Amino acid sequence: xxxxxxxxxxxxxxxxxxxxxxxxxxxxxxxxxxxxxxxxxxxxxxxxxxxxxxxxxxxxxxxxxxxxxxxxxxxxxxxxxxxxxxxxxxxxxxxxxxxxxxxxxxxxxxxxxxxxxxxxxxxxxxxxxxxxxxxxxxxxxxxxxxxxxxxxxxxxxxxxxxxxxxxxxxxxxxxxxxxxxxxxxxxxxxxxxxxxxxxxxxxxxxxxxxxxxxxxxxxxxxxxxxxxxxxxxxxxxxxxxxxxxxxxxxxxxxxxxxxxxxxxxxxxxxxxxxxxxxxxxxxxxxxxxxxxxxxxxxxxxxxxxxxxxxxxxxxxxxxxxxxxxxxxxxxxxxxxxxxxxxxxxxxxxxxxxxxxxxxxxxxxxxxxxxxxxxxxxxxxxxxxxxxxxxxxxxxxxxxxxxxxxxxxxxxxxxxxxxxxxxxxxxxxxxxxxxxxxxxxxxxxxxxxxxxxxxxxxxxxxxxxxxxxxxxxxxxxxxxxxxxxxxxxxxxxxxxxxxxxxxxxxxxxxxxxxxxxxxxxxxxxxxxxxxxxxxxxxxxxxxxxxxxxxxxxxxxxxx
Length: 558
Known about the structure:
Layout: E1 2-9, H1 17-33, E2 38-40, H2 58-74, E3 82-89, E4 92-94, E5 99-101, E6 104-111, E7 114-120, E8 144-147, E9 154-160, H3 167-175, E10 180-185, H4 193-208, E11 212-216, E12 218-221, E13 224-227, E14 231-233, E15 239-242, E16 249-258, E17 261-266, H5 274-292, E18 298-301, H6 306-319, E19 324-328, H7 336-349, E20 352-355, H8 359-373, H9 380-401, E21 404-407, H10 411-416, E22 429-430, H11 437-449, H12 462-466, H13 486-498, H14 503-508, H15 513-525, H16 527-530
Parallel strand pairs: 1-2, 2-3, 9-10, 10-11, 18-19, 18-21, 19-20, 21-22
Antiparallel strand pairs: 1-16, 3-6, 4-5, 6-7, 8-9, 11-14, 12-13, 14-15, 16-17
Helix pairs in contact: 1-2, 5-6, 5-11, 6-11, 8-9, 13-15
């Protein structure tokens, strides 16, 4: 017996029920013509992931139910074709302060116009970016369905994402007769997550003795990215197939039964480097945020520094040079090499480049405030004025021409408050918000050595990478005037913010007490800035966003 199955690794849009449904219908018809008789779509494919508080609206749930019926009706003529779609279902009774939930994160099995079964997710994640217990209640049942033509059927146990990270759902499926596990998923990307999933599913198949197909979402949704990387494992844990990452793909696997054993065969996409994953995640995050929200183009301040250089390279790979505009805004403290390097990079990538001096505005601000500031030395106040002038100019250009401003701050700066409210933080999308400064440098070197989107090798002038980082807001300024070396800062940040190590534990690991005290204090006192920062792409297991929810008013230090 041989059954041809397909994972529709597709990019859906949250709330576009008609568009998502049509995408599933088109995929099913195309796969059917290719001999496929079982099509798996990702978790919550009907509505997109994650719809957040849309799940609380009864009209949204009703519309999702109607969309499932539409898909079933449109595919009714495909004889022996089974399609699994993910969707929310159910409802709740609510008052202004109490909600009794009965909604489920569900999947339905469709065949020849009928809904054969509906399964509700049993294990609801409520950590990192996940918040499913806010919206759903756990399911209790098991879903095992038959797929294939008469005399050529296989029993499939259906699981949804987190279910497969626990032993019981898979065991119950096997006890109910499943010969193959189908796991539909929407699991946000962070560096290394693909390997983590494969390893966990390897443990699962070896424990239950069943092969497994992992159907995963691809695409960007606000701050999260889904990388695809669907795969198939045989019962011994060996990789039977793997879909490419960060692109839509109709991932086909052949299910062979020889006597009582089930064996899967599929193409295996090659393993990738962490830098390649990071780059594609940033590119996909930008492309989908801009595209799905209907922005015609982007604009960014190009300073001649490493952060804006990396953001520009990502933007061009994501959108093409014609949809990217750069503006250099020199101040009295801008070094000649900064505008020289900025011009050079803009020419390498072929983007529009303009220069608007902020010197007149800066002098006007100082003149207006001269009476108030009389007798006081210049300090961070004047530095912030320069940043805010630049933010105002970029936002004015954004308003006039409709381009969204890409901000260029990195995670190290967000952590320590080395950024200016209403200045360099002004904008609509923070591309490298979750990249530590050391990662920014590493990724810049990777991009100079690789050209994954054909926009040109070595887009970043070497001097931008090698010169000491500086905000250039006062004479001869460098970042390390007020911050520890980035290698030290980022290591402390990783230990404290991402891994919840204590201050004393970090010091015991060999870091200077003064550095640890300074960095952790800066993280604590700058929470108010981060609350006002633009949404940005999440690429680590703990980002400043949904992963990080600390009170602004807070006297506890870990």
